[in-house]
Amino acid sequence: MVYVDVGANSYPVYVKAGILSDVGRITRDKGIKKALIVTDNNVGPLYLKKVQSALVEAGLKAFPLTLPAGESYKTISAVELIWEAALEATLDRKSLLISLGGGVIGDLTGFAAATYMRGLNFLQIPTTLLAQVDASVGGKTGCNLRKGKNLVGAFHQPIAVCADPSTLLSLSEREYCSGFAEIIKHALIASSHLLELVENNLDLIKKRDLTILTQIVEENVEIKAKIVSQDEKETGKRALLNLGHTAGHALEELGDYKIYHHGEAVAIGLVIATQIACERGYLDSSYLSRIQALLCSLGLPISPHEEISPEIWWKRTFADKKQSSGQVYWVLPKVGGLANYGEKVEFNEFAKAVRSLGKG
Amino acid sequence: MVYVDVGANSYPVYVKAGILSDVGRITRDKGIKKALIVTDNNVGPLYLKKVQSALVEAGLKAFPLTLPAGESYKTISAVELIWEAALEATLDRKSLLISLGGGVIGDLTGFAAATYMRGLNFLQIPTTLLAQVDASVGGKTGCNLRKGKNLVGAFHQPIAVCADPSTLLSLSEREYCSGFAEIIKHALIASSHLLELVENNLDLIKKRDLTILTQIVEENVEIKAKIVSQDEKETGKRALLNLGHTAGHALEELGDYKIYHHGEAVAIGLVIATQIACERGYLDSSYLSRIQALLCSLGLPISPHEEISPEIWWKRTFADKKQSSGQVYWVLPKVGGLANYGEKVEFNEFAKAVRSLGKG
User: What is the pTM of this model?
Assistant: First the structure.
């Protein structure tokens, strides 16, 4: 169990195979009597009954809501469906919303929980690797606007996160691999140990061994929890978590969110940031090859499928919402599992890194 | 100037005729460079240019957005229009949303500010009496769902509130009078002085004298600020502010929000709560006549236009969202400008109060 220390809103993250069966006890112990479980039509058929039974056995009333799966449904209309279902189920401020699914379901349900009756309890059950190591920890919730991703949202910490690594066994190969981009990101910004743990256990990782997955998820949650607890509302150090995302987000956008999964775009973004850091001498140049080899072994891309002009890509990095007053700040990795945030990068550095992609 | 003390999010409320012209300076002093002013088609034609000029003269970029006026537009669709206008105006987390109008515009704009990019600066310019003495102070923001009022929202404190009593000169008689229900409510829960101030200045109040209005608004803001600072998120004492609202909200609902303005329904709710309190001996029975006379003098109703069965009315009080686990808690006034919250009221007490309405 990892504890996320955010003052009065602190909460535990349970990482354990089989934890789904404990959701009822965890919830009942907090005095909650009524819950709405929000899931999607991919995840619902696999785990909804299990979670609902666990709640009912613990004496709670548990209502289900299944939304269509996919990023294109991450809209305010989906949030409205959750609000309306909450009202239908007569939830009040002491009730609970539970998200059962990946990042999209977690963000939507969290935002509904942040705003229904000005805030009620929220519990996350992340079922993808990406959601377990990243999205479910930190309290960021929200949805997309027609003209931009994640432009609407709120910080709303859950009362608990229950991450069951055995749910990772049902992921497609592509979705499973995508999750490793954020894991490598966490390793780069905070932990040489995690980097070596992944490098030294590639076979077990490919077999989705539950022992190594539990260890990896837990170490990731620890890293993210530590950063979030130092900067809950993203006014400083939390920016470290954007490593690989400046170029990565821009690439996702250029592909209209259809060509690259988030983790795939972030993997390529990590290569670019590492390349720039090596050029600057922040890292030994052998480090770039090491990261490229690791990402490849994990089934992640290290260059775009088609050549992209550095000018067009660069321009897109300025459309990201984290910009303030036109300046884009980068995160660059450094020796020893550390990184700097707030770095200014010049176009020629970026262009050089882009041109050398796939020529490693 | 009144200071609302809510820790790190504390802010000033300026109550001054002519303060609209100072909005530019107040905003610039906080380092803000870009603002979106949200107003409605009643208030916009009167004050939008003035506020926009004040901002531009202080060196800010100021964009306008005019929404249709009225409670029926207090929807998530209206909030979406604000989000989209904010994006169009390229607002970022350091920019500002300004509400210029009554309670509906304040709540919608505040909710957009709470959620656009997970929260940006918000400044309130309330232009109705109700908004100046009540809605603009305390950080409650939100919108309605199809099936219930104010079911969606967030606590989001503004960086400042600028209440200009001279905007009250343009209100219709009915809207002006409605605002006094919340004023009498504040007097009942916290201030014999305010009650006497209103009673002793009815002529000046009818003439909308700016000196007395400034004093009244300021005393109200002080009362609300004190309660809010003791209980920002409404977990305890803030419930006091619901005096008159248990029966009042139910009455508004019974009239489908078409028959009674909010203040009118609250006025009748205040009479019912006062009657119950007198019956219980919390107050001398002469107090009821005093409150009824005062509300009448202020142009407010003290009984429904048509007889309503106590059974139907009582049932509606249970539909209010503040209920938790089926119990409705009332606020009842006591001797000396005080009140109790968390009171259980029996149906027969309520029915007796309802039956005696209009028979004072």
Answer: 0.94
